[in-house]
């Protein structure tokens, strides 16, 4: 995806944001009649999704500004002179104002945007994990312990990721101050922390999917409830796949970067390539992180949209959802009229009464299956 221009990258970002808002609108429409407390597992999950979408929008706006902002109005010759002051023609380059000011501003925005990006990824994990606590009372002791270990792993890895990103270059200003970026070898667009964080991200996602699989087996569900729960797990694996793809992209870029550093050390790199390696440009530093964040938010919204499909299937089956989302109870269709309109004593045959296949008040086991089927 490196062949995309800056404007092409911007078009890709906001197309995905539009898709995200469409999915969010469908989710809100599907759950418009549901009632649950803000502090319930579903309420906390919904808050996490709302916060992630807000932060993703902010990150995409910052990236757009960085891609087409004032930094890209600086001529390439100025960049070359800044990073290679010993060149014979460097003193002849003239540029109005100090070009380091817009560059440092972009570096600061990039640094803060990556922090928000990691917050988004881990909020999506919380949105998936916290919904499992709605069934914690029905779980076995071993499965409940696995659930607690999973949420603890999410919390610990989040702290680790933020600390690694912020403290890899010390002082922290080395992430955006021009002189320190040029003089500090370990902080020149280094992709090592991004690769480490991507590996941690993939491992935590796998742990979450494993916990979901264990919870479904522990509930001893059957039929459509099992299929519904496994579908939610399959949706969660989308985040794992996207995170894995981005991890591979970062590893490939890091290997190319290391070869470029070796060429610079051995004096075999051209001045143009030297500038590209030293400059922590937006495309290399982010590695399409915003694409991963948007797709993760879409995956978090998809389980709620399933309610629309269940209602559509119920209508076609002649059933009407009375309160989908709170109790899962179904209202049976009206009883058909009998062939005997007079009292039963005047009929030649005894009347037949219509009995719905689904009771108006479902038993507890049925309610539990419906609740699992509506995990959102």
SSE layout and pairing:
Layout: H1 6-30, H2 41-68, H3 76-83, H4 100-130, H5 141-167, H6 178-183, H7 192-219, H8 224-265, H9 271-278, H10 282-286, H11 289-316, E1 320-321, E2 330-331, H12 364-373
Antiparallel strand pairs: 1-2
Helix pairs in contact: 1-2, 1-11, 2-4, 2-11, 4-5, 4-7, 4-11, 5-7, 7-8, 8-11, 8-12
Helix and strand element order: HHHHHHHHHHHEEH
Helical stretch tally: 12
Q: What is Rg?
A: 28 Å
Mean of residue pLDDT values: 71
Widest β-sheet, arrangement of strands = 1-2
The helix-and-strand class reads mainly alpha
Distance between the termini: 33 Å
Helix content: 55-70%
InterPro entries: Rhodopsin_dom_fungi, SAT4-like
Subcellular location: Membrane
Family: Belongs to the SAT4 family.
Main location: membrane
Feature tags:
376 residues, mainly alpha, two-stranded antiparallel sheet, 2 strands, disordered C terminus
Task: Report on the architecture of this protein.
Pfam families: Fung_rhodopsin. The chain is mostly helical and 376 residues long. It has one domain. It has twelve helices and two strands. Helix 1 packs antiparallel against helix 2. It is globular and about 70 Å long. It starts with 5 loop residues before the first helix and ends with a helix. The relative contact order is 0.13.
Q: What's the quick description here?
A:
The protein is an all-alpha fold and 376 residues long.
């Amino acid at each position: 995806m490196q062949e995309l221009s800056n404007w092409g990258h911007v078009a890709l970002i906001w197309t995905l944001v539009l898709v995200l808002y469409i999915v969010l609108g469908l989710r809100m429409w599907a759950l418009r009649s549901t009632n649950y407390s803000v502090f319930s597992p579903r309420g906390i999950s919904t808050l996490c999704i709302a916060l992630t979408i807000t932060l993703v929008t902010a990150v995409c706006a910052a990236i757009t500004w960085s891609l087409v902002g004032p930094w890209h109005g600086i001529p390439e010759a100025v960049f070359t002179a800044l990073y290679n002051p010993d060149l014979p023609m460097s003193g002849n380059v003239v540029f109005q104002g100090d070009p380091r000011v817009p560059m440092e501003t972009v570096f600061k925005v990039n640094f803060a945007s990556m922090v928000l990006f990691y917050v988004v990824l881990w909020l999506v994990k919380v949105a998936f994990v916290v919904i499992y606590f709605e069934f914690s009372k029905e779980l076995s002791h071993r499965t409940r312990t696995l659930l607690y270990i999973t949420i603890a792993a999410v919390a610990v890895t989040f702290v680790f990721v933020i600390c690694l990103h912020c403290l890899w270059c010390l002082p922290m200003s080395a992430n955006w101050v021009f002189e320190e970026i040029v003089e500090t070898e370990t902080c020149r667009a280094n992709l090592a922390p991004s690769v480490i964080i991507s590996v941690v991200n993939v491992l935590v996602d796998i742990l979450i999917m494993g916990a979901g699989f264990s919870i479904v087996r522990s509930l001893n569900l059957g039929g459509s409830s099992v299929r519904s729960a496994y579908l939610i797990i399959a949706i969660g694996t989308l985040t794992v796949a996207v995170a894995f793809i981005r991890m591979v992209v970062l590893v490939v870029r890091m290997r190319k970067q290391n070869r470029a550093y070796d060429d610079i050390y051995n004096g075999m790199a051209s001045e143009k390539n030297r500038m590209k390696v030293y400059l922590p440009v937006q495309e290399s530093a982010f590695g399409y992180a915003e694409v991963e964040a948007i797709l993760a938010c879409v995956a978090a919204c998809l389980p709620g949209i399933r309610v629309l499909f269940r209602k559509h299937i119920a209508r076609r089956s002649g059933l009407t959802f009375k309160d989908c989302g709170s109790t899962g109870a179904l209202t049976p269709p009206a009883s058909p009229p009998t062939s005997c309109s007079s009292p039963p004593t005047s009929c030649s045959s005894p009347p037949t009464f219509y009995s719905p296949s689904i009771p108006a008040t479902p038993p507890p086991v049925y309610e539990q299956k419906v609740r699992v089927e509506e995990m959102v």
